[in-house]
TrEMBL record:
One function term, GO molecular function aspect: fructose-2,6-bisphosphate 2-phosphatase activity
Domain of life: Bacteria
Gene Ontology biological process: negative regulation of glycolytic process; regulation of pentose-phosphate shunt
Alphabetical list of InterPro entries matching this protein: His_Pase_superF_clade-1 (IPR013078), His_PPase_superfam (IPR029033), Phosphoglycerate_Mutase (IPR051695)
One GO term describing the cellular component: cytosol
Protein name as annotated: Histidine phosphatase family protein
UniProt keyword annotation of Endoplasmic reticulum present: no
Cross-referenced Pfam families: His_Phos_1 (PF00300)
Keyword Hydrolase: yes
Annotated catalytic residues: 16, 89
Length: 203
């Protein structure tokens, strides 16, 4: 009788470390904001979490704060990464660099807070466009999981993606049916792990 194993891809979604705009609670979006100095960036725990973990594929947002995060926590992987603009945070348009306190009296901003799917930041990205690009790269990861199960005892491969809070929340909602966008929150310098492409395999 054949024993059934399962194999899956473990997707490690890392949020970039802290920036001055994180500290000041400003919308960053596509703005190219650098990380704070080493200790202030909050990456010590992440560096330990990723230490000595092997990854079959590495992806990274092309924005500076994500590139710097990867270079600090796993410099050995920085040269192997795919730097992909689909992993950017949502584009907040004219609101980038501003805070809630600066925007709270704007009727458009308040409408967006209530219904971000229907309301778009001035000069920014629609929810539909944001959803499509994140879903596109998520489906690419699913295809990797289906094509390339990693042989070995646990029959798993790992993908590392260094990205942004909104992208992580959306990817988690795609992986977990019934989970809303706001149900997943990851701190700057944090990581979540998702199992994708899980299938049974006989041996």
């Amino acid at each position: 009788m054949k024993r059934q194993n399962s194999y899956a891809t473990e997707l490690w979604l890392v949020r970039h470390g802290r920036t001055s705009w994180n500290r000041e609670r400003r919308y960053q979006g596509h703005s190219n904001v650098a990380l704070l100095d080493d200790e202030a960036s909050g990456l010590e725990g992440l560096e330990k979490d990723l230490e000595s973990v092997s990854f079959s594929s590495v992806y990274c947002s092309d924005l500076l704060r994500c590139r710097q995060t990867l270079e600090r926590v796993r410099p050995d992987l920085a040269g192997k990464a795919v730097y992909d603009s689909r992993l950017r945070e949502m584009n907040f348009g004219q609101w980038e660099g501003q805070t809630y306190e600066m925007l709270k009296d704007s009727l458009v901003y308040r409408a967006w807070i209530d219904d971000p799917v229907s309301v778009t930041p001035p000069g920014g990205e629609t929810w539909g466009d944001f959803h499509r690009r994140v879903k596109s790269i998520y489906e690419e990861w699913l295809n990797l999981a289906q094509r390339n199960p990693c042989p070995g005892h646990n029959m798993e491969q790992r993908i590392l993606a260094v990205t942004h809070g909104g992208v992580i929340s959306l990817a988690a909602s795609l992986q977990r049916p019934g989970t809303g966008f706001w149900d997943t929150a990851v701190e700057a310098g944090g990581v979540i792990r998702l199992r994708i492409g899980e299938r049974a395999a006989a041996d």
